[in-house]
Every structure is written in structure tokens, then in C-alpha cells.
Amino acid sequence: MFKEKIQSLAREVVSRHGAIMVLWVAFAALSLGSMGNMVSRLREREENFIRLWAYSMGRLADAEYDEVINAIVNERNSIPFIMMSERGTVERSNLIAEKILRDPVRLDRKISQLEGDNQYLTIAMRNGSHYFVFYGRSKTLVFLTYFPIAQIVAMCLLLWLWIVTFRSSKLNEQNRVWVGLAKETAHQLGTPTSSLLGWVEYLKTQPVDQEAVGEMGKDLAHLMKVADRFSKIGSDTPLEPVSINELVGEAVMYFRKRIPRNVELDYNGLAMAPVRARINPALFEWVIENLMKNALDALQGHGKIDVRLSRDERNLFIDVGDTGRGIARANREKIFEPGFTTKTHGWGLGLSLSRRVIEEYHKGKIFVAESEVGKGTVMRVVIKALA
């Protein structure tokens, strides 16, 4: 029921933000379309203006009209151009720097640039001579032409920021859900464990198999450890120097008495030199137990689990290997996602919480070191070792 509520909440969030994204894209398309239409109309207007001016030059170019022409060019025209005679001399120009007009190399380069902007115009004068007008685009048109590119870049940046914020918000929401679930589980376990503790103490005074009562006590102590671990999720977690050989060894010893007879469990840590690391014992032991439990599930009642310790100059490695069914390559990262499971029954939380414990609390790593479908898997935990 709880899992279905989480999935329903996730669908609602995606639906809400999906509508925002559709509106964003529609607004961007409308904005860019309007800007493109504006640029096209302004370009057409400038072309018409320069053609009209060229035509007027051909009809009015006379000494008595020079003053009128100069007024039109200097005060009304915001389009850069160069007007050249058939001999290649500059007759008129507008918005072209003097240093360009005086330098033949720069002038040729500028004319080539203007030709790239627009096809040059030919002015047929009344006296039979011809002039050529090379013209570009006004600053306003240039700005509006490149503005959509800046607009697209800005929109993409904002969209990226929105996606990052949304993902962060979604992850935070999921984390709050899992932390709340963990603390509620720990709280709910408190009452029955207290009651069971009383019953175990009572059985110790009765004429019953005390070895069985002792094992019940161990299971109850382990259950209380589980409740304590869940209560620590999402809280400040103090770390302390601990012998990893002994801590993992205790988990293995507890586990060994509770596995099927056809399953073999090996551990090399008690036969090697002591290795220490700064950890939270309750949470770290839970991670090791969870890895062994997953290995046992993969064996389906028969096979081998091999827990091995090793180290280099800086790091400590705990490998939990099994001869089970293996993990498909496509699922090697998915198995750490909350809710992902290949089991018929399960919430898919174990490895997700394990990664959080190792990476966030212990600044280590947990990953699939080796795996082959049908042959088995090796899960590895890496933490910094104490000298």
C-alpha cells in the first residue's frame, strides 16, 4: 500500500511539471516564431528602402539635388553601404569607417562582407554611367537576427536549471519518504521487541531447552539492532574506530547458524591481520548482513557465499560473493535505485539504503565488482582504512 502511494505521488508530480514543460515549449515556439517574423519584415523593409534610394539616386543625381540626397543618406539611412563607380572608386558611403575606405585591402574585405549580406544593386544614371551599391544590414536588424540564438541558449539554460531543480526536489522528496518509513518502522518495532524481551527472560526461569532460549535471545538482540539501525537513518551518525575483522566476523557467525544446510559460508577475516576503519558499527554491520542476505536469496537454497577482507595502503575492501544466478549488465546500477527489485516479494530498498549508508555516512563506495548470469556475483564495499 505504501509503495503504491509513493508511485501515485510520483506520477502526480511528473504530470504537474510535464504540463509546465509543455507550456514552456509552446511559449518558446511562439516567441521565436514572432521574432523570426519581425526579422523577416524588417529585412524586407530595409531592402525596399535601399532599392528606393538607389532608384532615386539614378533619377535625381544632379548638382542641385546633392543636398537632398546627402540629407536622406546621413539622417534617414541606418544601413551601411558603399557606392562605387565603374572605375572602382568610392563615390558615397554610409556608416563605413574612414580607415576602411582608405585601405584597399580592408575595403575589398568589407565589400565581400556586404556582398555576403545582400546582393549588390546597380544604379543606372541618366547620363548613361553605372554605379554599384554594396549594402549590409542595420544594427537593429543584426541584433534581431542573432537575438533568437541568445534567446534559445537562455531558454535551454533555464530548462536545464529547471530539470536539475526538479530532479533535486524529487530526490529530496523520495529521501524524506524513505527516512520517514525507516523511523516509523523503528518506532513500530519498539513495542513487540520490549514484550519479547520480557518473555525471553521469563523462559530462562522455566524448565525448557535453554540452548533454544539462548538462540531466541540472540535473534531478539538482532531484532533490536535492526530497529536501532532504522532509527539512525536520516540522523547524524557518529563514526568510531572499529576492528572490521571482528565486526564482519560477528555478522558471519550469526548468519552461518541461520542458513540452509546446503549453503556454505566462508570468511577469511579472522585469519588475517587486524584491520580497522572509522565506521558506525550498527549501520555498517547491517550493510554486510544485507549483502549476505541478497547472496543467500540468489543461491535459492544451495551454493556458496564467500566473504573476504583485503586492503591496500589506503583502502579496505569487503567482498561478498555468491554462486547464484548473477545480475544482468543492464541492471547493475538499477539494483541501487529505490523500488527496483528482481524478487517476487520485496520493496527494493535494501541496496538503496546500503549505498546511502556507505557513500553518505562512511564516504565509501559500494558496487557490483563482478557478475555473470548463471554463475554468480561479487559485491564490493570500499572504505578508507585506518593506518
Give an overview in words:
The longest helix is centred in the middle third of the chain and has 65 residues, at 139-203. This protein is α+β, with helices and mostly antiparallel strands. The chain has 2 domains: 2-137; 237-384, Histidine kinase-like ATPase, C-terminal domain (Heat Shock Protein 90). It contains 9 helices and 11 strands. The chain has helices at 2-60, 66-76, 98-102, 104-117, 139-203, 210-232, 244-256, 281-299, 350-361; strands at 81-85, 90-94, 121-124, 130-135, 240-243, 263-267, 276-279, 303-311, 315-322, 365-372, 376-384. The strands form 3 sheets. The chain has a 5-stranded mixed sheet. The chain is rod-shaped. 19% of the residues are buried. The chain starts with a helix and ends with a strand.
The secondary-structure class comes to: alpha+beta
- Listing every helix as H and every strand as E from the N terminus to the C terminus, the arrangement reads HHEEHHEEHHEHEEHEEHEE
The main β sheet shows up as: 5 strands, mixed
CATH superfamily of the largest domain: Histidine kinase-like ATPase, C-terminal domain
The global form is rod-shaped
Distance between the termini: 48 Å
Strand content: 15-25%
CATH architectural label of the largest domain = 2-Layer Sandwich
Any idea of the CATH class of the largest domain?
A: Alpha Beta
The parts where pLDDT drops under 50 for at least 5 residues are none
- Main-sheet strand order equals 6-8-9-11-10
Computed CA radius of gyration, to the nearest angstrom: 39 Å
Query: Mean pLDDT across all residues, rounded?
Result: 81
- As for the number of domains, it is 2
**Secondary structure: helix percent:** 55-70%
Number of helices: 9
CATH fold call of the largest domain: Heat Shock Protein 90
Number of strands: 11
